Amino acid sequence: MGETTLAVEFSDIEAAAERIAGLVHRTPVLTSSRLNEHCGSDLYFKCENLQKAGAFKARGASNAVYSLAEADLAAGVATHSSGNHGAALAMAAASRGIGAHIVMPENAVGAKQEAVAAYGGSIIKCESNLPAREAMLEQVVAKTGAGVVHPYNDARVIAGQGTVMLELLEQIAELDVVVAPVGGGGLLSGLALAAKSLRPSIEVVGAEPAGADDAFRSFGLGRLIPQDNPQTIADGLRAGLGVLNFPIIQRHVDTILTVTEQSIVEAMQLQWSRLKTVTEPSGAVSFAAVLEHPERFRGRRVGVLVSGGNVDFDNLPW
């Protein structure tokens, strides 16, 4: 039986890297001898919490917006988002001089709503469930004619997110394994495709909250399992896995691990105190996987993807 054709190829990620050069930050890689001792591994934290708009989402949003033809610019862009993708899309749209319509759940983190507004995005509130988000987005598109840039189920977004792995392997060439969070799968699918294309021997591990484990279950069963009532402080990882993302993850990811809420909080606190860098719950899930499953990583050179740093300071999980 022939292999399924994937929505994104490695050449798309290379093209995205050229397209977004100068539009996004080349984020630093931080290390801590104390955390290395604590885990028994050599850890290299790729700090996308220091990315523009505070998360890796700037990569995919910028690639999507700057892929638009001139004829498609006038109506602007639209999406639904719990926050980080919405802010990134609003930022990218503003830099190209077009409008951005962002559908957000009514319980979205205040800081993330403020970020969308600060970048000039137009916020449309809806009930806090996926059907409501999708229905409201349909209404917005029907009214405005805006082009949809899905948070993760979009080839342009996946290719943009994959550029983070090109950078990481330029910064730290000899990685044995890389760990990245998974919600909708835009980051993990793009990163995994880039990693296996450049360095086939590298192990790619997805990390997911146990209370929102649809990717873990989908990966294990070999078919897409819908997300059902996710319960986790990692608000950026409550989305269900995308249909474009899943086949890439199936082919290029080695395993998916789940982590407890307690491990996410511990990872946040250690990153704040030892790395002196602010990490949101979703951004701490990769490190939480190393803390919770140390035997998998012991004695290895581990890339840890810190996906975002947009924290609600009025509602810290400790």
TrEMBL record:
Tryptophan synthase beta chain-like PALP domain segment(s): 22-308
InterPro entries in the record: TrpB-like_PALP, TrpB-like_PALP_sf
Domain of life from the UniProt record: Bacteria
Keywords noted in UniProt: Pyridoxal phosphate
Cofactor: pyridoxal 5'-phosphate
Protein name (Swiss-Prot/TrEMBL): Pyridoxal-phosphate dependent enzyme
Source organism per UniProt: Candidatus Litorirhabdus singularis
